Amino acid sequence: MTGPISVFIIDDSAVVRQVLTQVLGQDPGIRIAGVAPDPIFALQKMQSDWPDVIVLDVEMPRMDGITFLRKLMQERPTPVVICSTLTEKGADTTLQAMAAGAVDIITKPKIGLKDFLQSGSHQMLQAVKASARARLDPVHTQRAAPQSPLPASVPKAMSHTTDQVVALGTSTGGTHALEAVLTRLPADCPGIVIVQHMPEKFTAAFAHRLNHLCCCEVREAVDGDRVIPGLVLLAPGGRHMQLRRSGAQYRVSVVDGPPVNRHKPSVDVLFRSVASVAGRNALGIIMTGMGDDGARGLLAMRQAGAHTIAQDRDSCVVFGMPREAIERGAAIETLPLSAMAASIIGRSTCGQEVG
Questions:
Q1: What is the pLDDT of residues 253-303, one digit of tens each?
Q2: 315: helix, coil or strand?
Q3: Where is the Response regulatory domain (predicted)?
């Protein structure tokens, strides 16, 4: 891409349009291509100057964001950053938008909007820049449906600590990547712990969505949850998650604390704890995302004897976190997204030891 990134803002609030224009316009690498109060007006304006990135609200008059996204991804795929109100109801709606093809989420409160957007300008700018580099097709074409019905009951817990724990970290583009991997896993997959960079309130809705799509059970982690086969635990937004040993059991701790690598939850926090307590019984996977969160933690896992995998460039929406891990020597192998599930299954069911 040459020249500044062109951005089009679609939001029915004039205040939001004004503040976003100021926040994004302050960066010389970004050009505001236009603004509109709803997608219908936007489509008319964008025909003469199609943007590199669209910043989109979800709940708008005449055409909602989800309907617009589906139309956009069918006719002219374009990176989209969702700018949505932080509410439980809004979380479910926004995740539908993510499933329809959006790349990232930025949250906005109902009150104190101007101060919030200005204080969060760095996050907004980074999201737009990462989205401009997004590869949309690889992830969107690799999504799969569950291969068998959901299990009738929760699988039995492990009786010793030699069972494998899979630790997975991802960020921008990760909602699609996780769906592509988890929907290919059987009901008796190894216990999985995940950090997906996502705002508070959105992780519960995301876990609920995945739970309906997957053969294994997926839920937002609660402090003290036991890691068992067939269960996937997703770190709550706004909290760190760590793996710990409790006798012969693996459990998770969900804790507060300052952001690490600008994120809470942080992939590094999870990976370092897995390196410490699981060692060679762990499999570490770092997937699509912006920045370097997780690269150091994945290296710690490798040094502790774990097998480590990074997603390859071509299948990443944003090849940031995996690239950093590869450059640091943290990844033993590099795989496309389409091969991740098979690798997890193979290393847990073929009698292979991790290490």
A1: 999 999 999 899 999 999 999 999 999 999 999 999 989 999 999 999 999
A2: coil
A3: 6-123
Tokens representing 202 are: 């959105």
Nearest to 193 by CA among 159, 162, 229, 161: 229
As averages over each run of 10 residues, the pLDDT of the chain (355 residues) reads: 89 91 93 96 95 92 89 92 74 81 81 66 88 70 40 37 84 92 96 94 91 96 96 97 92 96 96 97 96 97 97 94 97 97 82 40
- For the chain, where are the E strands, in sequence order? 5-10, 30-36, 53-56, 80-85, 104-108, 165-170, 191-196, 217-220, 231-234, 240-246, 249-255, 282-286, 307-311, 333-335
H or E element: which one contains 312? Answer: none
> What does the alpha-carbon distance between residue 37 and residue 60 come to, in Å, rounded to a whole number?
8
Sheet of strand 80-85: strand arrangement: 30-36, 5-10, 53-56, 80-85, 104-108
**Strand, coil or helix: 53:** strand
How far is it, in rounded angstroms, from Cα 58 to Cα 67? 9
Strands 231-234 and 191-196: parallel
pTM assigned to the model? 0.82
- Which residues make Cβ contacts (< 8 Å) with residue 227, sequence separation at least 6? 165, 191, 193, 233, 243, 249, 250, 251, 252
Tokens 């929907």 -> residue: 183
Domains of the chain by range and CATH? 5-134 (3.40.50.2300), 165-349 (3.40.50.180)
Alpha helices (runs of H) in 29-188, residue ranges in sequence order:
39-46, 65-75, 88-99, 113-119, 121-132, 137-140, 174-182
Catalytic residue IDs: 171, 197, 293
Quote the CA–CA distance of 186 and 166 in Å, as a whole number. Answer: 14
Contacts of 318 by beta carbon, 8 Å cutoff, 6+ apart: 130, 133, 134, 135, 171, 172, 173, 288, 289, 290
